[in-house]
Structures are given as C-alpha cells and as structure tokens.
Specification:
Helix content: under 10%
Strand content: 25-35%
Number of domains: 1
CATH architecture: Beta Barrel
Number of strands: 10
Low-confidence stretches: 70-77
Strand order of the largest sheet: 1-2-5-9-6
Number of helices: 1
CATH class: Mainly Beta
Shape: globular
Radius of gyration: 15 Å
Distance between the termini: 21 Å
Largest sheet: 5 strands, mixed, barrel
Order of helices and strands: HEEEEEEEEEE
Structural class: mainly beta
C-alpha cells in the first residue's frame, strides 16, 4: 500500500494489520535525524485540529545495508493516477517490515504559542513506524500515461 492509502485507511484498519509485515510505498526521505517514506496526500489524517504528517517512519537498525534496487522485486510502482505532481522527480521506495503504531494518536500543546505537536514516531512524529526486515527497494518515479 502507498503512504496515502495507509493515511486514508488508517482509522478503519483493523488492529490485525499492525505488528504484522506489510509493504509501504512512498517517497524516501533521509536526514541525519532519521528516515521515512512520505507522499503528498489529498486526504490528511487528523486528530481533532492536528494534521499528522503523511509519512511512515522507518526503523532500519536491524538491516545491514538497507538500500538495494533489487531487494523487493515483487513490488510494482504506484499507479500514475495516485501520484501528485508535487511528488514527481523524487526518489520512490518500497519498504517491507512490521508496522507499529501508537494505541491512540495524541496531539498536545508543545510550546508557549499553543501549537499542537503529535506524539508519533521519528523526527517528524509520523503516525506509524515500519521496522524494516528486508532491504528497501528504490525505483524510478512513476511515468505519466
């Protein structure tokens, strides 16, 4: 499933998907603080007034050399109609692993200005985390039909 499919379906997903192995497809972001898959989604995930980042944090600590273009060769690219033009030209990846989430998505004031911050995973406080168990497949962006 893509990051956007996950964000759209997360409220309805049964608990059975969590703590089980899944493949998530999205745009790979790597910083010194962490790694995650993200995507520009038309339907944001919200907790009250707080909008969660459209992202799944990646935990790659247990995988040696986690990036490989041939690692998940059974995956295909996201269909073109799912791709927001803002996401073209970026690095897409498919990651296989165990999906974890917080029991309740909570956002609380985190500063003097009353801004809300989510209690999620990784440096961007994503609503879920994928503990990667195989190498991450990197592929070219989807092409226009």
């Amino acid at each position: 499933m893509t990051v956007c499919e996950f964000m759209k379906e997360k409220p309805a997903l049964s608990a059975s998907i969590f703590a089980h192995s899944v493949v998530i497809i999205g745009i790979l972001v790597q910083t010194p603080q962490g790694k995650w898959l993200e995507q520009s989604c038309s339907e944001p995930l919200k907790s009250g007034d707080f909008v969660w980042p459209a992202a799944v944090s990646l935990d790659v600590q247990g995988v040696q050399n986690p990036f490989n273009n041939d690692a998940i060769n059974f995956m295909s690219k996201p269909p073109d109609e799912e791709i927001d033009p803002k996401d073209r030209g970026r690095t897409w990846a498919a990651a296989y692993g165990r999906l974890d989430e917080r029991e309740h998505l909570v956002a609380a004031p985190c500063g003097d200005d009353g801004k809300l911050c989510g209690h999620g995973f990784g440096p961007i406080s994503a609503p879920a985390q994928l503990t990667v168990v195989r190498r991450i497949r990197i592929f070219d962006e989807p092409t226009t039909k």
